[in-house]
Every structure is written in C-alpha cells, then in structure tokens.
Specification:
With 538 residues, the chain is of the alpha+beta class. Helix content is 64%, strand content 8%. The strands form three sheets. Strands 1, 2, 3, 4 and 6 form a five-stranded antiparallel beta sheet that branches. A four-stranded mixed beta sheet has the order 5-10-9-7, with helices on one face. The chain has a two-stranded antiparallel sheet with strand order 8-11. It is globular and about 70 Å long. This is ABC1 kinase family protein.
Length: 538
C-alpha cells in the first residue's frame, strides 16, 4: 500500500473519529438538559460536521461523494441540519487531461484510438469521480458517447472501501446506530452496488436489460450500446441530443407539457419497482435526458438495485393499504420488508402513517400553521428514533433513489399528485399478480373487500380525530410544560446533590487531615449518597 493510499485512509478515518468524539462529548455534557439552547448548539455542531464532510468529499471524490449522497437521504439516523447541508452534493469533479484519457483508451483497445474513432472532442462533456464522457465519431460516421474510467479510480475506490471498513467498525463499537442499521450488510450492499460501477461491461449489460424491458413503452428510449468497443474501463454508446429533464427552459422552448412528462417519468420508475424487480439506483436529472420531441432517455446504468419477488409482494400490501386507507396492512407490509421489528408499537406507528398520508393528501403540509407542521415532523422523527424501525441494507440505495427521483418530479411539476398517479397502476399491477397465480384466494377476496370499504371504515375515526384535535393540541402543550417543569426540578435536585457531594468530600479531606474517624465515616456516607443521587437523577 503506497503513501497516497495511507494518506487517503488517514484523512477519512481521522475525520470519522473526530466526529464520533465531538458527538460523544456533546451528549455527555448535555445529558438530561436538552433545552432549546442546547438543541441550537447541537445543530451548529452537526452543521459544521456536514460542511467539513462535504468539503473533504468534493476534494477526494470517489466513494466519499457516493456515501454523502446516501447519508443525505437517511433522516432516520442523521440530524436535519446535517441532511440540509449535504443536500445537493453532486458527483462533479474537474476533468483529467485529455492525453490521460486517450492513454486509457489505447490501453483498453490495444491500438491507437484513431483506429476506431475519426473524432474525439477536445474536452469532456461530463466528468464524475469514476468516469468521464467524451463525444466521438466512429469510422462509419456514427456519433457516439465514449465513457472512460478516470486513471487511478481502482486504487482510489479500494482505499475508500478500506477506510469505510474501519469507520464501520468504529460505528459498531462506539455509536448507537447499530440499532437502526445493519452495517455489515450495508457494507456488502455498497461494495456490490458501487463496485459494479467500476466495470463498464456490467453497465452495458444493465442497459441492454432495461432496453429490452421498456422497448414497447411509448415516449421512452434507452441508448444503443456497442459491444465491440466496450471494455471494463471503456463504454461506447449511442450519442443522445437532449437536455437534462429538469431543464425547464428547454421544456418551455419546445412547447412540452411538464405534467405529462412527470406522469410518464413516474410510471417509468414505478414499472421498474413493480415489474422485474430492477431499478435505476441513481436517477438524478443528469441521468434522465429529454429530447426535443418529449422522449425520455434513461442513461448511466452503473448503479442498479434489485427488489426480490417476496419484497414486491410486501410492496403490494403497502400500496394497497395506503390507497384504501388500511394502515394496519401498511404496517404488515413494512414488517414483511423487515423495516419494523416485532416489538414495535403498532398503534403509535399506524397513527403516524395515517397522519402523514392525510397531511399529504390534503396538502396540509404546505398550508398548516408552521407550529403544527413542526410538531408533526418532530413527532415523526421521534418515532423513527425511538421505535424499533430499521432500514434493511438492501433498501439503502432504493431509499436514496426514491428520494432523488421524487425531487426530480417536483422540479418538473410542483403540484404532482403521486397517489393519483400510482392508484391505477398499482391496481393494475395487483390484478396482474393475482392472474399470474391463477388463483384469487379467500385471503385476497377478504383483503380487497376490507380495503374497498376503507374510506367508510375510517370516516368515523377521522371525525373523532377532527373533534379531538383541539384537545390533543392542549394536551401536547400541557405535557410539554409538565416536562419542562420536571426537567427544572431534576436540575435543581442534581445541583443540590452536587453541592452535598462537594461539601461531604471536603469533610472527608478534613477528617483525614485531622484524623477524625467518626467524622470521616459520616462524610463518606454523605458523599456516596450524594453521588448516587446525582447519577440517579436524569
């Protein structure tokens, strides 16, 4: 292992250790006194950490950017201020000199690049931490995109994975995150998903698979790939003229319908999840292009995730439960997906899901009083942190992909109604699943009857919730004031216990100095009792 690798690992691991120590010291100093002032200092700390991470990630590139993008979607384990700072972290790095790219091309092809290409652009069209894309022209005049792996990428990624093994070991030993994340499985998922990006032959195979799956879908195009020019570090594919799908000026210039495009894009993503199991794991605006005629072009199949048949059935349960307001079924599906552990408080979680769905459907998250919105979101965060909720490692990149994709949809159409778009497609998918079985079982009939009566069943509960909302708000405020008073009493008690401990310790010191045995025993008893009281009061 050379000096460069050691230095890279040192910078990543030392930053992680520093973050762990800062968080641990902060929590110890402020245990039992979580006030608004303390919360503000906590947000300032994690914001500084996020800025430091982002700065180092942009400087080092490689796995650090991919990991930062992943962390920016983990609201279940990362503080909101950390997420906000990492949001928008993009994998864009300065391009390497053209001569270095040509050197890689000729190493892979074993001939001069001019034997295959009559033209190659002077500068990279796109540049990321793993590969760079140039525009080229084959000898027969066909325009192509030539993706070339950056020199030294293998060495960088290997060093980053070694650093991540150390960081994960530290996280398992010294942080509470193991309750919510299976770090060992997550590491395996990272190596399989991100590691696959290093082999462009895999990307070609993935692209071909997607092309076969969506060949009949109107308004969707997957580029053509060229086997004869593709190697592990070089990928040659059809050149696509178009713009990023989030380029609103391009859409308006060509008179395209943003709402219709967002509908087609949503169906494209939903089809990936519901049929076949594979999905594009990096669907940001740069990987989804739009032609002047409105055709959606999906590119860059380096990161691909897979959803098993068993998990797709659980997704069906969740989708049906949400559409038909059967939130108990939603929790059943989440349990089947291993998101919930058996001892979770189902009543609490069912209420949380119902409140979130209701807030989304009525657009209340945009219209409600800021205090109510803040209370709702804080309650959700508290539930995620306190309940036995976990993100299975195999869904880590699905969560990231879904988050990125929804962001793209809302740029296209801020008023997009995901439930309205999903409802007919999910029902069609559900019926297809059952036709595929050849059976419509008693359990299916019973569940669909119950689901169909969902709105009628939940109406009384909605009415009760509406009538009880002022009472709930009053109880919330009263409980909040009660917790604050209790916190103040605890702080006063700890202060008195600390004073007694200090006085009794002084008594011990004096009794030892003057050798007063009776006074020594009395002071010792008071000192031990004060320490016990100080630790017992939280």
């Amino acid at each position: 292992m050379n000096q460069f690798t050691y230095l890279r690992i040192y910078r990543i691991v030392s930053m992680a250790i520093r973050f762990y120590l800062q968080v641990s010291i902060f929590q110890r100093r402020n245990r039992g006194k979580w006030t608004p002032v303390v919360e503000q200092r906590w947000n300032e700390l994690v914001t500084r950490q996020a800025k430091e991470y982002k700065e180092l990630a942009l400087k080092l590139g490689g796995l650090m950017i991919k990991l930062g993008q992943f962390l920016s979607t983990r609201a279940d384990i990362m503080p909101p201020s950390f997420l906000a700072e990492l949001e928008g972290l993009t994998d864009r790095v300065p391009s390497v000199p053209r001569k270095d790219i040509i050197e890689v091309l000729e190493q892979e092809w074993n001939v001069e690049h001019s034997n295959y290409l009559s033209e190659l652009s002077e500068a990279a069209i796109a540049s990321a931490s793993i590969g760079e894309v140039y525009k080229g022209r084959l000898k027969n005049g066909t325009e192509v995109a030539v993706k070339v792996q950056r020199p030294g990428t293998d060495r960088i990624i290997r060093a980053d994975f070694q650093a991540m093994r150390i960081v994960i070991w530290l996280a398992k030993k010294f942080t509470p995150f193991t309750k919510q994340v299976d770090f060992d499985q997550l590491y395996v998922e990272m190596t399989e998903t991100i590691g696959a990006e290093l082999n462009f032959v895999r990307e070609l195979q993935n692209g071909r698979a997607f092309s076969d799956r969506f060949a009949e879908m109107n308004g969707v195009h997957i580029p053509l790939y060229y086997d004869e020019y593709t190697t592990r570090r070089v990928l040659v594919m059809e050149w696509i003229e178009g713009a990023r799908i989030t380029d609103i000026s391009f859409i308006e210039e060509h008179g395209l319908d943003r709402h219709e495009i967002s509908e087609r894009l949503f169906i494209l993503f939903l089809e990936q999840v519901l049929y076949g199991g594979q999905f594009h794991a990096d669907p940001h605006g740069g990987n989804i292009l739009l032609r002047p005629d409105g055709t959606i072009v999906l590119i860059d199949f380096g990161m691909i995730g897979t959803i098993s048949e068993r998990d797709s059935q659980a997704i069906l349960l969740i989708a049906e439960g949400i559409l038909f307001k059967n939130y108990e079924q939603v929790l059943d599906g989440l349990e089947d997906l291993r998101f919930l552990l058996p001892h979770a408080d189902r009543n609490l979680l069912e209420d949380a899901v119902e409140r979130l769905v209701a807030a989304y459907e009525s657009n209340e998250l945009m219209q409600m009083d800021s205090f109510v919105v803040e209370r709702l979101l804080k309650d959700m965060q508290d539930i995620v942190r306190t309940q036995p909720v976990q993100l299975p490692a195999e869904f880590a990149f699905f969560g990231r992909a879904a988050s990125i994709f929804v962001g793209v949809l809302h740029v296209l159409d801020p008023n997009v109604d995901l439930f309205a778009l999903a409802r007919p497609r999910v029902l069609e998918w559900a019926s297809t699943k059952r036709e595929g079985k050849g059976i419509f079982g008693k359990e299916d009939v019973l569940r669909w009857v119950l689901n169909s009566t969902g709105p009628a069943r939940v109406f009384p509960k909605k009415l009760i919730n509406f009538l009880e909302e002022p009472e709930k708000m009053r109880n919330y405020l009263e409980n909040k004031e009660g917790r604050e008073r209790e916190h103040q009493r605890d702080m006063q008690s700890r202060m008195f216990a600390g004073i007694f401990a200090l006085v009794s310790f002084t008594g011990i010191s004096l009794s030892v100095w003057f050798w007063h045995e009776a006074f020594l025993w009395v002071s010792s008893v008071f000192f031990v009792g004060s320490l016990w009281a100080f630790r017992a009061i939280r």
